[in-house]
Amino acid sequence: MRAAVLHEIGQDKLDVVDDMEATGFGPGKVRLRVRATGLCHSDLSAMSGVLPQPAPFVPGHEGAGEIIDVGDGVTDLKQGDRVLMCWLPACGVCPSCKRGQTQLCLAGFMNAGTPNFRRAEGDVFGFAGTGTFAEEVVVAAGCAVPIPDDVPYEIAALIGCGVTTGLGAAINTAQVEAGSSVAVIGCGGVGISTVQGARVQGAAQIVAVDPVASRRDAALRFGATEAVSPEEFADAKQRITAGEGFDYVFEVVGRSATARTAYENTRRGGTLCVVGAGAMDDFFQVNMFELFFDEKRILPSMYGGGDVLRSYERAIALWRAGRIDLEGLITHRVRLAGINDALDQMRSGEALRTCIEI
């Protein structure tokens, strides 16, 4: 079986091999033939060590495909079902799930510590317990979510992570109000989805902030009312909000420096929503006086901040109605053999989302 593997954390290239085996199939599990997967910035962060992940591992967590086998006890899936991959499935019984905060369920993270691939050299992990840069993967049945027949695999793959994360940050976590002012810092695939979420919610001004000109242009196509470079952000704040700051600012980079910029450009009483996944040793700081005096809400958003199954359904409904554009997010397409070109395109900012056809 073909797969792309990172042998050691810190390497910047993946090795496409033909001798990978998907392991762990049994009761409660399904075997999935991956048809399409997106390249998410979190994959790069895991490769570089920003996000913790044991190695060697197969990256990829934003995938879709079809069920080719089901284990004992799996009653709601069958061979041939079209599914998207949920890398953070809810167990339904933990305290977070019982409170209705299924996006905080830790059951899925436990999967990341169990190898689900094997080569002659030994065990191989799948990123976030999945590993969609492979022809096949074995996952818990809860990770495979059926999709309607009219949803293409490449669209379903994006809904499995980036789209759900960005839309959910605006709709679930921040609950952007109609007529409000919004700024989005970082306009890759997740940031553009956040822009679309703010537009769906009825924001009056949506300012996209990104150093890459092509991403700024893309943000305008997806609903931003203005797109500026980081150096132009202060001027936009002055012009649009008379210097007060934006009602909502979304940080979609995952760095303390941009989170601080987001905080400073949020109005008093406004909302800073942290969407980007950052490193454990990168600390965001506010002083105790400003924290009290400015009364700015600081809201992290994990996987869109809501029930992911409901979020998937909502994304499909909005896409069907023409309220959001998902096809346009896919700026590049490659086969698995071209995965390293896709990595370079994401690092340079050239790609919003690359669809990898497995």
Word description of this protein:
Helix content is 30%, strand content 26%. Strands 4, 6, 7, 10, 11, 18 and 19 form a seven-stranded mixed beta sheet that branches. The protein has a six-stranded parallel beta sheet with strand order 14-13-12-15-16-17, with helices on both faces. Strands 3-8-9-5 form a four-stranded mixed beta sheet, with no helix packed on it. Helix 5 (162-173) runs parallel beside helix 6 (189-201). It starts with a strand and ends with a strand. It has helices spanning 41-48, 95-98, 107-111, 153-159, 162-173, 189-201, 213-221, 233-241, 256-264, 288-294, 308-320, 339-348; strands at residues 3-5, 15-17, 21-22, 29-38, 57-58, 62-70, 82-85, 117-119, 122-126, 136-140, 144-146, 181-185, 205-209, 226-228, 246-251, 266-274, 297-300, 330-335, 353-357. The protein is of the alpha/beta class.
What kind of sheet is the major sheet?
7 strands, mixed
DSSP helical segment count: 12
Indicate the percent of residues in helices: 25-40%
Task: Determine the mean pLDDT.
Answer: 96
Q: Count the strands?
A: 19
Uncertain residue ranges: none
Class of secondary structure makeup:
alpha/beta
Q: What's the N-to-C terminus distance? A: 11 Å
Compute the CA-based radius of gyration. 20 Å
Q: What proportion strand?
A: 25-35%
Query: So what's the overall shape?
Result: globular
